[in-house]
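User: Tryptophanyl-tRNA synthetase, Rosa chinensis:
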Amino acid sequence: MFTKYLQDAFKVPLVIQLTDDKKCMWKNLTVEESQRLARENAKDIIACGFDITRTFIFSNFDYVGGDFHKNMVKVGKCVTYNKVAGIFGFTGEDHIGKVSFPPIKAVPSFRSSFPHLFSGQETVVA
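Assistant: Predicted structure for Tryptophanyl-tRNA synthetase:
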């Protein structure tokens, strides 16, 4: 609930990424099952009482594209396979879906991934 406290105290937007694609790749689930689980996760998150006017919850399957994807490419070009393999323990037996995932997880850290939320703002504090 620390995140909710920070949102309330500073009146800042909150972006929550539902990594349904990761569940599909890492847990050997179908796309449909991982999407169902993401919807259940979203319900649990909403129940925490975040400010709905300042909270954006997104599913990777439903949202990734546009500026988000551009940032994924930029991040992907900055990180070598050896670095990612060392961090995540990838081996030659892992499928390429796992190897491609780190940039997807990283880019929500950049406000330019969400121009509809932060366009034209010098700061994100209201």
